[in-house]
What we know:
The complex is a heterodimer. By secondary structure, chain A is an alpha/beta fold. Chain A is built from 7 helices and 12 strands.
Amino acid sequence: MSSRAAVFAGIRRSLGVVGDEATRRFEVETRLKQAPPGVVPKRGQGDVSARLATFKAEAERAQASVTEVTEWAEAPAEIARFLRENNCPAMLRMGDDPLLAGMPWSETSLAVLRGASDGGDVNAVSAAFAGIAETGTLVLVSGPDNPTSLNFLAENHIVVVPRDAIEADYEGVFAKLRGVYGKGQAPRTVNFITGPSRSADIEQTLLLGAHGPKRLHIVVVG
Amino acid sequence: MTVVATSTKFKENAHEALTDARLQGAMGFSGNFVTRRAAAAARLPEFEALRDSARAIKDHTLAHLDLYLEAYEAKVRASGGEVHYAQDADEARKIIVDLCRSLGAKSVTKGKSMIAEEIGLNHALEEAGIEPFETDLGEYIIQLRGEKPSHILAPAIHLRAKDVEQEFRKAHRDLPPDRSLAEPEQLVAEARQVLRAKFLTADVGITGANFLVAETGTSVIVTNEGNGDLTQTLPEAHIVIASIEKIVPTLEDAAQLMRVLARSATGQDASVYTTLSTGPRRPEDLDGPRAYHVVILDNGRSNMLGGEFEDMLRCIRCGACMNHCPVYQAVGGHAYGWVYPGPMGAVLTPSLIGVAEGGQLPNASTFCGRCEAVCPVRIPLPGMMRHWREREFERRLSPAPLRYGLGFWAFFASRPTLYRLATALAARAMHLGGRGKGRFSWLPFAGGWTRYRDLAAPEGATFQSRWRSRSGAVQ
């Protein structure tokens, strides 16, 4: 008997089932199809501006910084300001996401590199798929224009998120993912990011920038 | 080689731990978990309802585990990944070592995985000539020291900063010997620098999984450092090692569990990084692993289904039970002698390695009940420890004095008249014996108690007799 068969046989023996019971199969298929939401906290819910307010407060609680700009064209200048104020070098790396590629980077003095990170980048900029008000979380999705390495290798991570992409809760993001990728499908990587990297492994002292970014700056556009 | 358990020596281990000044100093920091969890739970009105929901999801999944595993497996394959099954630790190690060999791996980075600890993976990789690097800061520290984790979330909770400094000076010999490592910030920065090089050169990344989602064939890891993400993003191959009970039906179900996991574990509303991984990188992607393997481990868990220890399979490894356990707080994690410490370890260890090896651990409890009170999936931990104590007794594994003592007590307890007479006599005698001070600093057969504190002397009558006279007075 293969190991697979042995593991399944062990599970079925203990559960006292054979595996082809119609009622059990029906229950499983129904749950997978319907994906019931369970208990969803009210905290993140509300209209766009209420969601943004909660998102901002929660992200700041998790030590991220948040600024708002009204036009896409203003984002590069805001990012340049953030880097300057934190004494970071005037260069960054980003993917080819259309949201980012369409911005007037040449109006700033920032040197912009494209593509995945090789581990030597100090600053990286990403475009978020969504935000989550409930916990001040960013949702980043991998793809040809959004390399995952940018989210973790740089010391300073700047994420641009459209104001109307801030969902109330995780369930809202799952619905949006299903809309884009199809039911039961997912991109290689979905990163839920809440604040900058940290560790409390030494004497329970919370320190930022363990392996991932030391700073997380969020630019809400719209 | 399987991980050697010293759980049979719990009593000796605990004695050593209680007199270990460094350990006692380090454990002082662990109280933070308790206040943070309480604050996070208080901040979310739906927290108790989420615990019920989390419990129900786990119960439903366990009752249909075979079917959800099938669904999960089909989805992983459809997204270009591979699924391997291991009945025990030996098989799991062999599958992973063979995979690493076939990928030509020389070095491997690892995210924190208790399953990898359970199967003794690092040792097997080293024997095969493959260098494993733990990348979670706490795991990295204990790997340097050749130790096991002493906590499932904070593996190096038993150490002080100066111990870490010492270890780093020993291990990082190519760095300037006169550098300052006095501040924890400097230790974190040095680990970041040293491990960054390992991330960039590793051939394979191995992580555990907090959840495996049947709906999409996705593995989920939850971390704060970002080490798990660098581990699984940068190398050519990503291997996930997870046990059978990590399956959840849908993304929504995973979100219910995430909401109680972070709050119960570290008191955060959300951990910094929750990452969903599905299959290898897609054809147009610029990064991500080209191969994605999931190794699913049974190792005794399927035997727990349908029995009195099934509830333990709901465990999501948040560590709240040990954070709130007075015994764990006093002796730390190493005294438990195997992989999983604290109340969850006391229940799980005998289930996985047998009552002969792990049967002492369920005795390491005062039955105060805090573990059950804070468990996010409401596992009746004290009740299950009681089951194990019964089994230990039935199998005559408990020590002779305990067995005779219980037999002696049972003789009287099942004869009420005799019991009342004997306790009345004993209470009277002890009252007389302790007259003057009202307490004993030494008593025969009670050395274990009186060595550390005095025993209060009875006031002359038993509870039962006082209760009777009191009720009589009221009527």
